[in-house]
Amino acid sequence: MKVYGITGGAGTGKSEVIKMLQQNFGGCVIMSDEVARELMQKGNISYQLIVEYFGRDILMDDGEIDRKKLADHVFNNKEALEKLNSMTHPYVKDEIRKLIAVMDGIANLPLHKRKKIKADNFLRAGMYGKSLLEYRKLLQGGLAMNFTAGEYGDILHNQGIAHFYTSSFAKNS
What is the pTM of this model? Predict the structure, then answer.
């Protein structure tokens, strides 16, 4: 699996390049900003380190970090910014490495397994129409014979769930 890092300032076309990689090559995207935000949520390592260093006054009422208050602490304060970066960047890199390893493992699976994962992920995301379409493709194509009885049963079960949520019955309940 090939891994590319896309960097650049605002308005340089990063989003267009990412969109092109996804549409034309089936690329998976990991947004480092999103990974950093997740690691800064309550219960994660960066959250703990940031609150220990900057104090509880940067927290909102729900206990999550108020990003504006945190930005106020580090704006024009090189030492505070470096400290914040040391509490986030190494963990973001580690998390991205883990995500790449997972994606690499998925990329090396047989086609029928990858397509089932795709359909399952649509279902988990509540994208019932897309999951229903993907499950139908799995069952109608020649890939169906590659599944074990248990996997085939899971597909039928999940297809039923997707069908329910796209049916008029679910919309009227």
Answer: 0.64
